[in-house]
Amino acid sequence: MTTETHTRAAPYVHGYSDAEAQRLGDQADTLAELLHAGTAYPAGSRVLEAGCGVGAQTVHLLAGSPGVLLTATDLSAESLDQARARVAAQAPAARVSWHHGDLHRLPFPDGAFDHVFLCFVLEHLPDPAAGLAALRRVLRPGGTITVIEGDHGSAFFHPESAAARRTVDHLVRLQAAAGGDALIGRRLYPLLTAAGFAEVAVRPRTVYADGGRPALVEGFTLRTFVAMVEAVRAEVLAAGLATAEAFDRGIAELRRAAEPGGTFHYTFFKAVAVKP
Amino acid sequence: MTTETHTRAAPYVHGYSDAEAQRLGDQADTLAELLHAGTAYPAGSRVLEAGCGVGAQTVHLLAGSPGVLLTATDLSAESLDQARARVAAQAPAARVSWHHGDLHRLPFPDGAFDHVFLCFVLEHLPDPAAGLAALRRVLRPGGTITVIEGDHGSAFFHPESAAARRTVDHLVRLQAAAGGDALIGRRLYPLLTAAGFAEVAVRPRTVYADGGRPALVEGFTLRTFVAMVEAVRAEVLAAGLATAEAFDRGIAELRRAAEPGGTFHYTFFKAVAVKP
Q1: pTM of the model
Q2: ipTM of predicted assembly, 2 dp
Q3: What chain B residue is nearest to A158 in terms of C-alpha separation?
């Protein structure tokens, strides 16, 4: 997930630690092909990435569209610094303007961009419709918006485990308490339609990991999904959602999906729509 | 789902009514491309379809592999008659041998087939590993087995609804009580691996329906999934799993996924493996 917070939002549910920045990088690298396939903007296009966070997706966006004029924004100055460093290291030739600010109040004129891209951002907004409306303003008529989100309700695994399921549900509840929605993937179509976008096309992008795909088991099941759930342990305990014992049992049972004979399934949603 | 029952199984959970045969046809036609893509056997191959039921998948199998020598088996003579009629109408040139019997005790010699295909069958077997072992016997070394199954735990929808979710869970429980497993999709990899198959490759095949895909909303959300859940109403009430009022409220809320602004997600799993 990227780091997008603003005046109406509680703090970013996943935190800003080094471990989290590492997790975001692992996640983005493992999923780059799955999430970014099909996104290639023509050279010279003015592209806005809203909520770029630590730049985990930015480098993949630039790899797929090397000639664009990218503007990347985030509300966290610290995340933006990390994004700048990451892009300097991995895409030194890219032309990127960095903007520190709130995506709801961007200082760009109407229609300033040909394309808008955002990944794991809407899930953190208390009012994603307002965010989409603000982004629509800076998009030119005929320009596209691309939105990628997960949906934790899509997570299921073998062996089935009620304890593991409850532990995942704690993260969903925590994110809701912070004003977000970890189940937002399924809502992209109605959100974009209601925001006045046209030609809304939403496609599921499914991750499925079993013993025949050891790199995905390691990179996604363990280092992306389980790591994400595990990272909110302190907040779950502080919120009184679970005892330490129950939380840890849930994590241990979730990890069985990464053992021989285990399987894990998760669906991301990628939406592309046009500003009429 | 196809109609496969045997001495150790309770009656087929979906029943044998005309409405059910119609539903199976609707389901198969809507999903033909999604489920059958990638399955094309060379002309002259000896192919076994185990548990062909009313032939809903058989006609699509034959469309993708028109020159095969197909043997189709089912435990229900009545279903087999319907399958024969369906194939005669839709694939009159196909060469099909019909066999009435139990897939666990097929009267064919070891290695009699080049390929085995089964769709929505394992979910109804009390011991799917035993079923796979029996099918492995009649497959020649180097031959492939293709298994397609759903997983009701993959169903999620917008608007979210606890009542709708409970109603889906009743079907899962009913199928478990009948000796089956409506969550079997996620188990295909470990089941095939444990049964001694090699090169086991499982791929998710995801159905996602929103307002931009009205044919899928009608053909899948309503006429396949909701119809399937609705069809077990009498059994759910007889088993005391829900009151009529609660069941009907769940169905009504599930139907909202097919209304404007609603979305629906379901994942099938398709596995291909080789007999060493």
Answers
A1: 0.91
A2: 0.90
A3: B186
